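In this supplementary section we document a worked example of the pipeline. Step one takes a protein sequence of length 159 as its only input; no multiple sequence alignment statistics are reported here. Step two produces a three-dimensional model, which step three serialises into structure tokens for compact storage. The input and output of this example are shown verbatim.
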Amino acid sequence: MNTVQGPKSHEVWMGELVGWTRRASATPFGCFLVDRETDSVVAEGLNQSQMNPIWHAEIVAIRRYAKSERPLWDRVTLYSTAEPCPMCMSAILWAGIAETVYGTSIQTLMRRGYRQIEIGAQQVVASSWADHATVAGAVLEAECDNLFPVRNAELLTSR
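The serialised model returned by step three reads:
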């Protein structure tokens, strides 16, 4: 029997992103841009901030997609292993990406010793003109959290 499959769910895409990030890099910050109409990855990114401090995974993916022949920003969903920082969330909105999905929260990153600006992605959206944009967090949260080891064991005992 031949069955027609519909578009992949957020959980399926996040699972693919977690696997790709784990295989592709030592950094746990990974990003996919997925075209909702073709249900395919149109760009990916890994954190490259060691080369340039603003090259977070989301920025790398956005830059790659911007170089494509004809980027269709309104058809793209951004998947990130971690909640986009305020810089990245702003870039996502400026690009015209209306749907963002992430796994690990900024709060979890902070508890694990990752430097973060404590402004959530939803707060950036709420403070912008792009009130139509959606942010879905905690998608495969445990799997994403497992990508981010504790960087400073003292943090766990001091909080």
